[in-house]
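Hi P.,

Sorry for the delay on this. The queue was packed all week, but I finally got your sequence through. Input first:
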Amino acid sequence: MLKFKRVKTCLLLFFSLLMLPVLAQEAVVKGITKDDKSILPFVNITVEGTSVGVSSNEKGEYSFNLNPGQYTLHATAVGHKPFRRKITLTPSEVKTVNITLLPSEENLGEVVVTGTMKPTFTANSPVKIDVVTSKKLETFLPTAASSIIESVQLINGVQEVVACGVCFTNSISINGLPGAYTAVLIDGTPIYGSLASVYGLNGIPNMIVDRFEVIKGPNSTLYGSEAVAGVINIITKNPQVQPLLSVDVMGTSHMESFGNLAIAPKLGKTAGFIGYNYAYINNFDDENEDGFSDVINLDRHSVFTKWDIHRNSGKQFTLGGKYYYEDRRNGVEAFLTDRAYRELRGNDSIYGESIYTNRGELFGTYAFNTDNPLKLDFSLSDHQQNSYYGSDFYKASQQIAFGNLIYNLVGEKHDWVLGATLRYQRYDDNTVATPQGADNQFIPGVFVQDEWTLSQSFTLLAGTRLDHYQNHGFIASPRLSTKIKPSQWTTIRTNFGTGFRIVNLFTEDHAFVTGQREVVLAEELKPERSYNFSLGLSHVFNVLGGSGSFDVDGFYTYFTNKIIPDYETEGKIIYANTDGFAQTLGIGANINYNFQFPLSFTIGANILNTTETEPDENGRNQTRNVEFAPKWTGLLNANYTWKQQNLTLAYSLNITGPMQLPEVFDLDANGQPLPNPRPTTSEPFAFQNIQVTKTVNKQLSLYGGLQNLFNYRQQFSPLVGANDPNFNTGFSPFFDTSYAYSPIHGREFYLGVKWVLN
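Then the structure:
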């Protein structure tokens, strides 16, 4: 036994001596990780083609051993561009490789005008901004067909709202507030609103969008009326980097076809692009058997152009424009078959809705040749609406001219933005909304904002706006925001702001012109006022070799003069300012995470409480839930990429909790209204989508997917009174389109192809 132990010991010593030269040959790689300003801790460092991987410590220090040879170091950190460097190691060498990571444009992206009306990075902005890039849009959505309204659902707390159960018009809801409370900008310029907020947004193809930025909460200080719930800023692509030719076409299982075409010519040093978008749907599909098609029919054509005009000074001068035409229709089968609607528009026995929209836009930015930034944002738009809802004719016209002069003065600790605006708007329709003829408004305004950097960890943003309305006088809109950074990775933001909104009934409630309810204006409607406070925390983290961010936001909005339509009176919609108040209280949380391998996800949830409080006839306050405001929402976006196969799989889930629904009056067999036949609270529902994208080469890519994966349809038809035995379908005095709380478009398969020539 003793002899065996001696032999074993000798063998171990022998092999250890053999390994000493090998161990002695290992090289050491060490260094410090930092960004462009200071030490950057917890950076992930790997050696490509090996299993070697470490993270730098809280002091930014790292080290590891490698055999001699040639390697490529790869370093990553949240909010920074990846770092790569080739190194050569000799035996026993101690090599110092200091790693500097630069800020990532994708994660800190430049904000043109959205948060503070000046260029900044999202991470540095005192105002919380959510950004969706074109890459994310292409990953999760069919770019040929999807619009801005569908795209915003990739952001937690932002939803698509269905306004009408026949024509399926939609709008954007932020934090439970209807679409009319959201200001939509294009390249920082307010150009949409009123009529365009219902029928204009679907004509913006994602193909020409570089990114869009969303601010949740009032921003009337910078953007005036309609920015009560928040702001969506659509940033179009830079003409200088547009491919020479782009083509994107798609077809669906519901016999829908969509397409985009863009060319980007260069005229000397001036670059631009011209894009064309079309949509064609002509199909009758009635799965819920209410006599009306579940699929909207339409012909849509949109031409979009943008030019970056060369100036010897190098200052910005961009000019863009868009023409949008849509022929939108739905109704009973006889109205749609063989495109019979063209002869049946306004028919009083065969029900259909036919909506013709013609819209032209011109917008741009001109930067003056001054030492401090001075620019003029401007826009012109003309919107013409010609519609029939059954036999009811609706005609409307709206023109908007807007100019915004912005001056930026930067000091050592103060960053001032000064502005003056002039907005002219003309609105006219053939409803009680304009009983005295066209409404003409000249709205001058001024605003001032100061971003005061008190220290590296504390920033104060204060501003106010003053507008003058000929019917309402001066209206002030102040705000106060703070940004506190207790650490490099944690940011706390607070915001207090006020908002106001001038009412347009058509955008307030589409049931205003659809259905057979009588519209009643109980009084002259006053502007709504809101007061909002929000508190948010953002934290960036590295865990399990990956990186991510966590956000939580709480908010409270208090309304006075809130206009909430009353559906509870049979056959009527009654509009009036509330004598009490309305409020929205909520909290939302969101996690983004990127694994070391090519998997990333976003998961978020919101809890909302939206109520209206009014005194009854005895003076006692009565509180009720506001209709169509969900009690909670949630989302999940996840995508995985097989790099060798150039294949990406994306999955998205949007879930909506219960919401208060309007009281409607179904009919019995004799055509008499039943008391409260339908539930006034919806059940939770979810939409799930998947998309696969295959990159064939630098020019060609293919994509396909399923929308509404599990074929969700709302439990009841969105139409009420369509089955009245005493009247033709759609013409009953009880016909009502207001019971639409979710899309009824069933499961849909699609295939698309994109081709790019640089």
